[in-house]
Design goal:
63% helix; single chain; Helix Hairpins; 0% strand; mainly alpha
């Protein structure tokens, strides 16, 4: 699975969800939805680490919830990037992968900018 294919699949799911629930996905919606998912991930992390009430969930259910919320954050990030026309693979390569040890990775396009 690569990020472009994953992004396409996530967008298809999100498009259907928005249609079924009549959601107008504005610029603000993408950012706010990501923030909502980060909040849910934080809650799941706190439960997983014993720093929040478990709400009667088993350890396996808590672990599954943590994994699901992590997936939600990733998917919402992909949707936000896609909505703004950002090639997330390229952005990751330019921001993170240029710091890999060894010779610089080949740049397929624009000059690399390290911040």
């Amino acid at each position: 699975m690569d990020l472009r294919s994953l992004s396409d699949d996530v967008a298809a799911v999100s498009d259907r969800y928005a249609e079924v629930h009549d959601i107008d996905r504005t610029d603000a919606w993408y950012v706010l939805k990501l923030q909502e998912e980060v909040g849910e991930l934080t809650q799941a992390f706190l439960m997983r680490s014993g720093q929040a009430r478990t709400k009667g969930l088993t350890a396996d259910e808590i672990e599954a919830g943590f994994r699901a919320e992590l997936a939600d954050v990733l998917c919402q990030t992909l949707l936000l990037a896609r909505h703004h026309g950002i090639d997330i693979e390229d952005a990751v390569r330019r921001k993170w992968l240029v710091r890999l040890p060894g010779p610089p990775l080949p740049d397929p396009g624009e000059p690399r900018r390290v911040t």
